[in-house]
Design a protein that fits this description.
- The complex is a heterodimer.
- By secondary structure, chain A is an all-alpha fold.
- Chain A has helices spanning 3-22, 34-39, 46-57, 60-73, 80-105, 110-118, 121-153, 157-175, 178-206, 209-215, 218-221, 228-242, 246-253, 258-267, 269-287, 301-309, 312-350, 356-379, 384-399, 402-405, 416-436, 458-479; strands at 443-446, 454-457.
- Chain A has a two-stranded antiparallel sheet with strand order 1-2.
- The longest helix of chain A has 39 residues, at 312-350.
- The radius of gyration of chain B is 19 Å and the shape is elongated.
- Chain B has helices at residues 2-6, 13-18, 36-72.
- Classes of the chains: A mainly alpha, B mainly alpha.
- The A-B interface holds A 75, 78, 81-82, 84-86, 88-89, 92-93, 208-214, 218, 221-223, 225, 228, 231-232, 235-236, 259, 262-263, 265-267, 269-270, 272-273, 276, 280, 499 and B 8, 11-12, 14-15, 18-22, 25-27, 32-35, 37-38, 41-42, 44-46, 48-49, 51-53, 55-56, 59-60, 70.
């Protein structure tokens, strides 16, 4: 037990709990409407969006798992840098257009767009299910992030997780997206303080960067040529997939203008730099001689490094920043999954006559259920590994929704059958290669480029098959005169069509 | 419209710079003991942000001139803020 650490940790936990409930009164509006509860009325400006998306995309699990990968496997873990570098040019181009059509036509989820765009509620259902399935294990991993941190504090994990779950579930239920947005302001500030302190203190303690890198085995510092293709396909595939995740779309839809999104594409890379620094903690943990701790293995490297490097009061602050950091994405993810269920399954297939109030109520309850499942996954020891595996697979699967959501914004002649078939081919081939590799890695050795084969990111290869099917099928349909044009007028993709 | 979108081509540069590891997989030249492979990628987070800011300014400068008369009923060519 580390009492001073625990006291600081608990006090900060209490602070964010209060904030989470107070958030209900922020930009006061009727929280019984799904646009208010689930998208905070689409009124967040550039600064709030920066904190919200930063806190939402750079999750607690990322902050634990990326340095753990560097700690265990070396340079491959740094793919997080190219990944989060190239994602923002993509966001700059694509997301303002998606935001605008969602704003003009009142979409809450990406599937709302797909349904309207392709005149197909079935295709919308496929996209919604893909989103929910990809998100659920991701929430579980946020809870795992909390568990890893709590472990080094020496308090009973089960009790602490149940408390964290109750806090998270209740403030999300009451305040909706306003809660994680307000908490993100505090949490991100704490993360920045922690990382800046760590990047000064730890190298000083270990004798400077040259000394740190001298202690790391050379094999872990550089990327072998056999991993070049794996490294860049992993970065590209992950970047293409990131803003297809429901929590990223929810965070983006909550902003108030296209300009907010464009400005954030320029300023969110600050978090990529931060993530890069956190990745280096993996090397520092090696240099500090840290040993992985059962049952979380390499994932315990960073929490242990924090305890090694800081006086206990600051270690409490730093560990709290990771644990509180888990609450923001977990909350946004549960809201996003709940919105998908509510809009694209419940009111679409089960209760088409649902009133707006019932809609919001269903979303709130589903957000609870989703989190309960996530905590269950982490509390049952053998299931934790499944959460990690499923999250890996979730990345492969969510990427297969790209043609339906992003490509559809630009190519008016994509047909619903073509996109559905592409989705099926992408999901099936991706899952096949995941199974063939025993779900051990997101890279698979493909029999191309010499007899040793080439390691490539499964998600990206499956996506290439997917997009070939979509384009060829749509083009053939067009040639035989069976084109299904986009039903949404071009004006709705551009700013303020009501003024034109 | 088209001319303003042409500036988006600048955003292709980071893809070329970081998606081809043979460019930067080596450890030399090291900087303050940090291998080239690592500091090169950090440098690109900054360059990418700078390029995006540049693209944003080029795009919105044109936009404001168009927006002013529509919104405030003033003469075109209003003061860019």
């Amino acid at each position: 037990m580390h009492w001073d650490e625990i006291v600081i940790f608990a006090a900060l936990g209490l602070l964010v709990t209060v904030l989470g409930f107070v958030a209900a009164n922020w930009h006061r509006a009727d929280l019984d409407l799904i646009e208010e509860w689930g998208l905070a009325g689409r009124r967040f400006g550039s600064i709030v969006t920066w904190f919200l998306l930063g806190g939402d995309l750079y999750t607690a699990y990322t902050f634990v798992a990326v340095p753990a990968l560097v700690f265990g496997s070396g340079a491959l873990g740094l793919f997080a840098l190219p990944y989060t570098i190239i994602v923002y040019p993509l966001v700059y181009v694509v997301m303002p257009r998606l935001w605008q059509v969602a704003r003009n036509r009142g979409y809450v989820t990406a599937s709302d767009y797909v349904k309207d765009r392709f005149d197909s509620r079935f295709l919308a259902l496929l996209i919604a299910i893909t989103g929910i399935v990809a998100t659920m294990p991701y929430i579980a991993l946020q809870i795992l992030g909390i568990a890893v941190v709590i472990q080094v504090l020496g308090v009973p994990i089960e009790v602490a997780l149940v408390v964290a779950f109750l806090v998270l579930a209740l403030f999300t239920y009451v305040s909706g997206l306003r809660a994680p947005a307000l908490i993100a302001l505090v949490k991100d500030t704490m993360i920045w303080i922690t990382v800046i302190a760590a990047i000064i203190v730890i190298p000083a303690k270990l004798g400077g960067f040259p000394a740190i890198f001298a202690k790391v085995p050379a094999a872990k510092l550089s990327l072998p040529p056999s991993l070049f293709a794996g490294y860049s396909t992993l970065a590209l595939g992950s970047a293409l997939a990131l803003f297809l995740y429901p929590h990223a779309i929810t965070g983006t839809f909550a902003s108030k203008s296209q300009h907010v999104i464009k400005r954030n594409s320029a300023f969110l890379p600050a978090y990529s730099f931060l993530l890069g620094l956190i990745a280096l903690f993996g090397y520092m943990a090696i240099a500090a001689g840290i040993k992985p701790l059962a049952p979380y293995g390499a994932n315990s490297a960073v929490p242990q490094l924090i305890q090694f490097a800081f006086p206990s009061w600051f270690a409490g602050f730093a560990l709290a920043s990771i644990a509180i950091g888990a609450l923001v994405p977990a909350s946004v993810m549960s809201i996003a999954a709940a919105n998908l269920f509510c809009r694209n399954i419940w009111t679409e297939y089960i209760r088409p006559a649902a009133s707006p109030r019932e809609e919001a109520q269903v979303s709130k309850i589903v957000s609870l259920v989703v989190k309960l499942g996530a905590v269950g996954f982490i509390l049952i020891p053998n299931l934790t590994q499944y959460a990690i595996t499923l999250q890996l697979a979730g990345g492969v699967w969510i990427l297969q929704t790209l043609p339906a959501v992003f490509l559809a914004l630009y190519v008016r002649w994509l047909g619903r059958w073509a996109v559905g078939a592409g989705w099926l081919v992408g999901i099936a081939s991706g899952t096949y290669w995941l199974v063939a590799g025993n779900f051990a890695s997101s890279l698979y050795t493909y029999p191309i480029g010499g007899h040793a084969g080439t390691k490539l990111y499964i998600g990206l290869v499956a996506f290439l098959l997917n997009i070939c099917v979509v384009v060829v099928w749509s083009a053939v349909a067009r040639l035989v005169g069976r084109t299904q044009e986009d039903r949404i007028g071009e004006a709705d993709y551009e700013e303020e069509p009501s003024l034109a | 419209m088209r001319a303003r979108d042409a500036v988006l081509a600048i955003l292709v540069i980071p893809f070329v710079a970081v998606l081809w590891p043979p460019f930067y997989a080596g450890s030399q030249p090291a900087w303050e003991g940090i291998p080239f492979f690592i500091w090169y990628q950090f440098l690109w987070t900054i360059i990418t942000a700078a390029l995006t800011i540049a693209v944003y300014f080029v795009q919105t400068r044109g936009e404001r001139v168009h927006e002013v008369p529509a919104e405030r009923g003033e003469a075109p060519g209003g003061r860019p803020e």
